Amino acid sequence: MSVAPAPRSAKKKSARPGGTLYRGNTGMWSWVLHRITGVAIFFFLLVHILDTALIRVSPEAYNAVIGTYKNPIMGLGEVGLVGAIIFHALNGLRIILIDFWGKGVKYQRLMFWIVVGVWVVLMAGFVPRHLINVFSEVGN
Amino acid sequence: MAAATQTLTAADAFTITLIIRRFLPDVDDEARWESFDVSVYSTDRILDALHKIKWEQDGTLSFRRSCAHGICGSDAMRINGRNRLACKTLIKDLDITQPIYVEAIKGLPLEKDLIVDMEPFFEAFRAVKPFLIANSTPEAGKERTQSVAQRAIFDDTTKCILCAACTTSCPVFWTDGQYFGPAAIVNAHRFIFDSRDDAADVRLDILNDKEGVWRCRTTFNCTEACPRGIEVTKAIAEVKQAVLRGKR
Question: 2Fe-2S ferredoxin-type domain: which residues (chain B) (predicted)?
Answer without folding.
Answer: 14-108
